[in-house]
Amino acid sequence: MSSRDNRLGAIPEPGGGDVRFRVWSPNARSVDVRIGGESHGLEREANGVFAGVLRASPGDDYLYVLDGGRALPDPCSRFQPRGNEGPSRIVQLPSAVRHDLSLEALVIYELHVGTFSPQGTFDGVRPFLPELRELGVTAVELMPVGTFPGQRGWGYDGLYAYAPHPAYGGPDGLARLVEAAHREGMGVILDVVYNHLGPGSEPITAFGPYVTDRHETFWGDALDFREWGAREWAIQNARMWVEEYGIDGLRLDAVDAIYDDSPRHVLAELADRVHAGAPRALVISETSVDDDRPIEEWGHDARWADGLHHALHALLTGERDGYYEPHGSVEDVAAELGRRPPERHLVCAQNHDQVGNRAFGDRLPPELLRLASGVVLFAAQTPLLFMGEEYGEPNPFRFFCDHTAPQIAEATRKGRKREFAAYAAFSREDVPDPQDPETFGRSKLSRRERPGMREHYRRLLALRRRLPREVQVQTDGQSLTMRRGNATLVVDFGAKTVELSE
Question: What's the total number of domains in the chain?
Fold first, then answer.
């Protein structure tokens, strides 16, 4: 059986009329597929998989029935049109073509689909792609789009990781966005979550031992990557995005919270198999500040290097709580600028975590953002922008969710307040309620521009395209001097000024 025939989920067969169903359920005695009120039994295969080819078509809804019991959605469903509780839908995607991304020229723009445009959809992103290309962005990075509870959310508490969220426009909407980005000569990177399952995962774990109590994550049950099905769930998901949607790169969320004591680490195998199917696709990892395992051991193309953000933020704001505690000097900034190889370390002045995980979702004020972004965009490392920063967006980006289970909603509210109780700047009682629709509404981009900010970004991005990669860095008191080729950037953190000369 070819690797494509080995895919989990409901996959239309070539020629039409038939669909191959494959689901991992190692503890089940029988698995049936219910389509249009009729049930069809599947045959047991190796590795605890049940499979069969049945008469069905794209657009048909289906459910799996385990041992004659409750009907459940497919853990690898390609579409959940009625959300987590509804049936799965068979999807046929058009042939996709990737836009090869180069690390050497990469400039990433991270965005949240639901708050980026008034529509809050994949289609709502498309009209803004030309202005991002003109600014100097080479790839947009979407925060997770797999189906999560309710209508509003960041996406990191998703359950149906293969199914683009229906509120965003589902599979067809994502495919249109990828195609539109490629027409603009831009790539698309997708944020994916393989470190845990979101709350309410019982319909998925009913199929098999996806999670383990041997490890814990801050967000939920850890995936058990010793299990064949959990391992394939993640790896095949990564391959689906790049091979079926033409996604050009993946950002793997919090890989330091992915535990695997198998002989071959799951994240190394994932990179190998993604690159085998799409050699130019990028695999990028978020991890702890000094963790270079993704690029040194696992074959990943790059990693997020949050240390530069932390050093800049601590120096500019004076905050020292939490992970800002070790930072606060110009020398810290200079040390972070020395990370090598530079193109494989992604740096930022802001991102969804560093804004949204503040109690009130407040962004850097424009006068400080000019300094931080000057350092980031002049650096040798690969820059990432967070939506709206290029024009000084004044609206916050807050943590919001829409859990439909009352007990999970209340636990999230209490957990959010408890998280910030120890932070001096965030210890007030009025931490925004993440379940309140207004918390989501306040996070929508206003598009109100700060004078001169967009030109500041445009100039620096144009400059980095023609300068040599290597940067010389010097410190003098509260001043940082960076030289690339014939250009010099001087940032005075005491006077809060940034000067660029060519």
Answer: 2
